[in-house]
């Protein structure tokens, strides 16, 4: 039996979402089909509104609907500490921990030569002018191979600027993403961060 073209198109589009394979996309498509029309219209409006209203902060590249994000606009934040993360979801995870009062910089990914992601595909260049001598930069990329490689690359760029470069403690599981860590573990990882050994 062949699916109707509109159902095939819906499954195809859903399967393009991260973490959604063909089987999950099919289940979601059938679930959406069973929902009332007003629920589907509300979902459609939410998607379109988010696409229209949200953009990246011009300073830290976090997601915001204002000119600058809440963190960059808050004068009470510690301006001498910048926490570098992979994705906007990592900012939310760290904020939930309640252990951090500095600024952020969101790379929107990690270095991954196998997938064609080099430094120019990430928000690395805009980070450098934000760093002043003596400032601390916390490298809070994930504990994956790509996350570690990205942290090492950033360390090489930041040390000549006179920055104090530190890495989050490894209370996080190896290969883990920050957004999936609980608040206590993430808070301890930040509090237990260590200054990285200077590269020769």
UniProtKB/TrEMBL annotation:
One of its GO terms (molecular function) is zinc ion binding. A zinc finger (C4-type) spans 57-72. Belongs to the RecR family. It comes from the Bacteria. The gene is recR. Coiled coil: none annotated. One of its GO terms (biological process) is DNA recombination. It comes from Deinococcus arcticus. Residues 80-173 form the Toprim domain. This is Recombination protein RecR. May play a role in DNA repair. It seems to be involved in an RecBC-independent recombinational process of DNA repair. It may act with RecF and RecO.
């Amino acid at each position: 039996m062949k699916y109707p073209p509109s159902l095939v198109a819906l499954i195809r589009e859903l399967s393009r979402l991260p973490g959604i394979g063909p089987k999950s996309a099919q289940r979601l498509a059938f679930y959406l089909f069973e929902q009332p029309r007003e629920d589907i219209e509300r979902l459609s409006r939410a998607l379109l509104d988010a696409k229209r209203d949200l953009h990246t902060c011009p300073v830290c590249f976090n997601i915001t609907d204002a000119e600058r994000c809440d963190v960059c606009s808050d004068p009470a934040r510690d301006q001498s500490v910048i926490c570098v993360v992979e994705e906007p979801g990592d900012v939310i995870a760290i904020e939930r921990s309640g252990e951090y009062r500095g600024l952020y910089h969101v790379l929107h990914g990690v270095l991954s030569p196998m997938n064609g992601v080099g430094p120019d595909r990430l928000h690395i260049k805009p980070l450098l002018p934000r760093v002043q001598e003596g400032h601390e930069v916390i490298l809070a990329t994930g504990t994956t191979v790509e996350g570690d490689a990205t942290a090492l690359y950033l360390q090489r760029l930041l040390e000549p600027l006179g920055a104090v470069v530190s890495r989050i403690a490894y209370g996080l599981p190896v290969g883990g993403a920050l957004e999936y860590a609980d608040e206590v573990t993430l808070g301890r990882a930040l509090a237990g961060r260590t200054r990285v050994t200077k590269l020769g």
